Amino acid sequence: MKELYILGIESSCDDTSAAVLKNDLLLSNIIASQEVHRKFGGVVPELASRAHQQSIIPVVDQAIKEAGITPDDIGAIAFTRGPGLLGSLLVGVSFAKAFAMARKIPMMEVDHMQAHVLAHFIRKQGKEFQAPSFPFLCLTVSGGHTQIVKVDDYFNMTVIGKTIDDAAGEAFDKAAKIMSLPYPGGPVVDKLAREGNPSAFNFAKPSIPGLDFSFSGLKTNILYFLRDRLKEDENFIEKNKADLCASIQHTIIEILMDKLIQASQITGIHQIAIAGGVSANSGLRQAMTKAGEKLGWRVYIPEFAFTTDNAAMIAITGYFKYQRGLFATQDLAPYARGNM
Known about the structure:
With 340 residues, the chain is an alpha/beta fold. It has ten helices and eleven strands.
């Protein structure tokens, strides 16, 4: 196969990332996170887009240098078109268009959620490569999305279950915020949960028909539960922080796993993957592994580096699009919302 160097660009939210692939082999994956949002307890869109403007050229430069190539070696560029924050996406899309035009190379637009699924196909030098075969189910869980996706091919994906309100990542972050834990809350809850008792407190699990999810009721239940306990003891959260985190995490994971098990039973598919930021959660990873052993699943869990937003997953999706001649045009615009 002819050597093809692909540059991937990811700028959908608050991480500026660039990666270089040699065909499907990862050479570099650089991520610049934006610390500016910590003091606000969440991502501020205007600040995010400004930070992307400052970071994108240094990040791309570092990715190309780490790959051991020059800009002239890049044969194609892949970029996140959406979904995401429009201001942030515009920075990456504009850079990709300019880079492609200046170098007269093709470009490939990438759906962010589709890329999370295809992160399982990234190869790394010296690492054993294990990717799911088609068809497989992928639970994609992040701050903005919670979906069960039936994957029949690289670009034939069907969402068979999705959240009807809030995402699982939002539930983690909201619970953390209520307990005055640092931002981003999800990793902090995960860390504290390892020290707590997951059966210490019971929280409501929604009864949603089919394979869809709901987390808004759980968020409300946590809020009211803590409000009532704090009336009795103003130090309740501090005294029970680890147990609260363990119980909340246990409830969220049970909601996710119940639907995923149903999806496997309905479809008869036993190749199961997870993707997205929440797939870094240690409790979810353990639950997936246990379910796999009990139910005879073949489970695929991504490396931590490929769970959060990263350009490697954009580049690998671009690689498969390049192979099929699915190229983007200069007149396209980013989109904030949309399905795979």
